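Hello Y.,

Per our agreement to keep a running log of every chain we model this quarter, I'm adding this entry. I've kept the format consistent with earlier entries: sequence first, then predicted structure.
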Amino acid sequence: MNAKTLGLGVLSTTALFAASSPARAGFPGDLVPRLVGNTILTDGLSDIDGSTATDVSVFQWTLGALAPGYTMDPGFQPLSPNNGTNLPASNLPGDSYIGFNVTTSLMYWNGTGTPAFSPVTDATQLELYLGGAHLYITGTTGATDGFVIQKLTSAGSGHRHLNAQFLGAPNPNGAYLDNLGNAYDAPTDGIYALGITVTDAASLTTDPNNYHSLTKWLVYNNNRSASALSAGAAILGLPGDATLDGHVDLSDLSIVLNHFGQSTNAWTDGNFDAQPTIDLTDLSDVLNNFGTSIPISTTASPAISTPEPASLALLLPFVWSSAFTRRHPRMRSTTH
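Predicted structure for the entry above:
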């Protein structure tokens, strides 16, 4: 019995405290999707120097090299066999369609002091576009559908970059233009983050979540230091951290319990596995990592402390009572 199939029987603490993936510091390159079982993982590959990394959750870039507030990232680069790198092939179905969905609003940290992200509160927005498809993301957008990026080759490979343009308030005399030619003021300086899931579908008419990834984080630096970018990226991706402050505590537990059983894939509502419903799997992420803090660092793979099992056990009666007093979740399939 595991957390996904648990009914009204005895709570399985083995499933509840199953290991969660650690947070990953930001990789400055393309997302390289590959299918493992029914889940898409993402490796990293740099278009600049060819460097690679495996099982990456957080990707980071600095805006402004090509135009103010702009970068041609993220790139998506599923690989074919014998691809000339040390990374494996995508294993994605040939001639399928790679795409993405959004799992958070546009999040912001000013780049000074202790890293912690919260939804954008001013007029700054992010436009992601490719060809005729575009999406505007603000501090109130929430989880939303993205769009198809590319049809893959028969070998399951491809390479395409999204355009990312940050914009301030609309202004006919502004210097920042979106893809439609509308003018805006400059976006606020700082570090921005967005959660997405990578999706793959057999055709344009099928469920875009035929296969999908866990939440991946896109982190952008607008006129802040490289160390601020790295520090902001380092606190993202910790399962159970709904508040995006690098800690798993009672605030995160409260968020999961308040949304328990709801159908939403929003990370900041407590959905850490990108499944349709917030359930015991998400609750296990909070309990498994309860008391964990990511040390503020500008280096990769920050150390993560492990909470004591005894302290977690003290929470079980409260959590069990709260979760099932609020509502009993709908069961969901573990297949896609």
